[in-house]
Amino acid sequence: MASARKPALKSSKSGNREETQALILSAAEQVFAEFGYKGATTGRIAELAGVPKANLHYYFKTKENLYHQVLEDIVNTWFAAAAEFDSIEDPEEAISHYVRLKLRLSRERPLGSKVFANEIIHGAPNLIGYLRTTLKDWTDAKARVIEQWIAQGRIRPVDPHHLLVMIWATTQTYADFGVQVAAVLGKDDLEDADFETAAETLTRIILRGLLAGAD
Amino acid sequence: MASARKPALKSSKSGNREETQALILSAAEQVFAEFGYKGATTGRIAELAGVPKANLHYYFKTKENLYHQVLEDIVNTWFAAAAEFDSIEDPEEAISHYVRLKLRLSRERPLGSKVFANEIIHGAPNLIGYLRTTLKDWTDAKARVIEQWIAQGRIRPVDPHHLLVMIWATTQTYADFGVQVAAVLGKDDLEDADFETAAETLTRIILRGLLAGAD
DNA sequence: TACCAACTTGACCAATCGGTCAAGCGATGG
DNA sequence: CCATCGCTTGACCGATTGGTCAAGTTGGTA
């Protein structure tokens, strides 16, 4: 034998099962982001993934099924990232960190953000339950922390939920509406420097708006 | 004669030409907003407008054509609204007005906002020219005004373009992501009071962030 | 009355798409 | 060597959809 392969359970000829699935999922994210759910075709996804369409349907029973997986992946990524930040206790540091974290996700995973945005814009038919339970709970918990900061006089009084919405909106816009932002900046694409300027501008305005003086 | 009608050019049996076209455009905006370009079907649009599909194609040659009209209507509305604001000269008043204006548009015309958002998310294939010319020019002009404010020490130094992006993002999110916002607020739909709270929160944070003290 | 232009509409078609299927392939184990 | 199992794939199908068409209908006009 030339070498001992390491088949997880069974081996196969080209790549292993998980590799192919990941390839399809990645292609699906890209195509769903670019064309929307209905506009995406399993044929195009398969082509981008480099597999025949029938093979795609071997790993994912239906297009809807595949879409659900893509959505779930994205939501999990975001949620895992959000957890990392939950512990910070100083308002300035916490908000600054969160803004930069979300901005980095917009930079690194814009396609996922677009798929998510698409889903929400169309009424979130597949995520409404998640929004009303998991996301709402997380938001409420975060809002309570913000209210504590307000009660302690550490930040000015603002509506905590709307503050969180504001942070989501301003950071995700650099992924979802990246084309528009780039256009008004006179560029073809957003670069690292633009994200750095965005982070500076956002944190400055929001933090100063929250911290400056007493009420 | 019972009454003298006023046929624009020629009369017809049910409604006049412009009325029917407006009906179709309104239905199209709704269906495009809900299902995206590809997901929208001319059949559904026609049904919602109360005309046979063939009649829809009599007034609008192709689906793409109809979509262009919907987009143009929205862009024109926004641009007309933006012009109304251009003259205000005091930073605080100007920004407060602009935020409330855009928030009102999100409240009153969320479907148009969603169609626009959809188009941008998918790479703005039909609007990239508009973004790079008309919108960029308007943005640059506005940015110059903001830079004057900064030079005059009337607001703190921030990147003017990113400030404008911030205002767009925060206000349009209440239209495009209304379902998500409502969900984390624990409601089924956003109400007038929510838009008022949003306006308060946004203007407070942004204005205080811009105005507070010297640098 | 006769005619015409604008408008309406049901029936229809070609193209696309999601999904199926059966035949085939490669490797493992007996 | 053969049987089996997981995987691959080209060909195919029914359903949907954008768009067409030809036969109407309506109302104004000469």
TrEMBL record, chains A, B:
Alphabetical UniProt keywords: DNA-binding
DNA-binding region in chain numbering: 41-60
| Top-level taxonomic group | Bacteria
Could you tell me which residue ranges the HTH tetR-type domain spans? 18-78
Which GO molecular function terms does the record list?
Answer: DNA binding
The UniProt entry's GO biological process terms, in alphabetical order, are: negative regulation of DNA-templated transcription
**Cross-referenced PANTHER family:** HTH-TYPE TRANSCRIPTIONAL REPRESSOR SCO4008 (PTHR30328:SF54), TRANSCRIPTIONAL REPRESSOR (PTHR30328)
Name of the protein in its database record: Transcriptional regulator RutR of pyrimidine catabolism (TetR family)
Its source organism is Caenispirillum salinarum AK4
